[in-house]
Design a protein that fits this description.
about 280 residues; alpha/beta; 5-stranded parallel sheet; two-stranded antiparallel sheet; 10 helices
């Protein structure tokens, strides 16, 4: 288990990776990636029980499914810096014939990628299938998934949410990234979602909040509580309140950087705010 400082140092380096990857190809999604950096670092380096290496069966280990696949920059960075593939492969982000496509896909065989997640709203359905497979196999490990709050406007999610409680899939922890922003504006402007807690509880889930979703210690504490609530007959939902663009001041609290790359000057500012900690690729 890493210390809080080690996780924070890694998060800072991951933010640098995100900025540099998106800037290099003038394409990608930095806002949501930056907002979820602390969560994915904590998940892969502390929270999940992972085996060495990678195989698609995932037997005897926790599994993670990224549903909002457009935040691939943070996912690729965390996977590379957790040993799934060489860090210098981040240089190939969004290039032709790369394994690091703009949205994760499986046919390139990139270690760590379990589903293609370019289309939104599908990740929970896949995660539930994996969770039920673990139950059938007598595997006591957990399945984690991550979803955007804007993504929850997709109807298939609610079929899956209803199914999860109806079938008592209690070995899954679905986390909703509540940053209040999506590509066209705030979620309240595009399509108000009301209370996520009330909705999930009405569908029979156990729900908990992590108010400081960009704080490593708060994430570790909240996810430990979430793990303690599994195995009790109900699926578990974590409402993770984050700031889009976290760690880069001019990208924070706005949808403007959902899918826009920084220019040279903006990159320099962002990197200055996130000093190199573990070595750039």
């Amino acid at each position: 288990m890493a210390s809080t400082q080690q996780l924070e140092d890694l998060t800072t380096q991951v933010r640098r990776d995100i900025l540099r990857m998106v800037h290099k190809v003038n394409s990608g999604h930095p806002g949501g990636s930056l907002g979820c950096a602390e969560f994915l670092v904590a998940l892969y380096r502390d929270i999940m029980d992972r085996k060495e290496g990678f195989d698609m069966d995932g037997i005897g280990e926790d599994l993670f499914f990224l549903s909002n696949g457009h935040i691939s920059p943070v996912f690729y960075s965390v996977l590379a810096r957790s040993g799934y593939f060489p860090v210098d492969e981040l240089n190939t982000f969004r290039l032709i014939n790369t394994r690091l496509q703009g949205h994760p896909t499986t046919h390139e065989g990139l270690p760590g990628i379990r589903i293609a997640s370019g289309s939104l709203g599908q990740g929970l359905s896949v995660a539930l299938g994996a969770a039920q497979a673990k139950k059938l196999n007598g595997d006591k490990h957990l399945v984690y998934s991550l979803h955007g709050d804007g993504e929850m406007q997709e109807g298939q999610n609610w079929e899956a949410i209803m199914y999860a409680s109806g079938k008592k899939v209690d070995n899954i922890i679905a986390t909703i990234d509540l940053n209040g922003q999506q590509i066209d504006g705030s979620t309240d402007t595009v399509l108000p979602m009301g209370s996520f807690r009330a909705k999930f509880e009405a569908f029979g889930w156990t729900v908990l909040d992590i108010e400081a979703g960009n704080n490593i210690d708060a994430i570790l504490k909240g996810m430990a509580e979430a793990k303690s609530l599994t195995g009790k007959g109900k699926p578990v939902c974590v409402l993770l309140k984050t700031v889009m663009g976290n760690g880069v001041d001019f990208m924070m609290h706005t949808h403007a950087w959902h899918g826009k790359a920084p220019n040279d000057e903006q990159l320099a500012i962002g990197l200055e705010q996130n000093p190199e900690t573990l070595g750039d690729y």
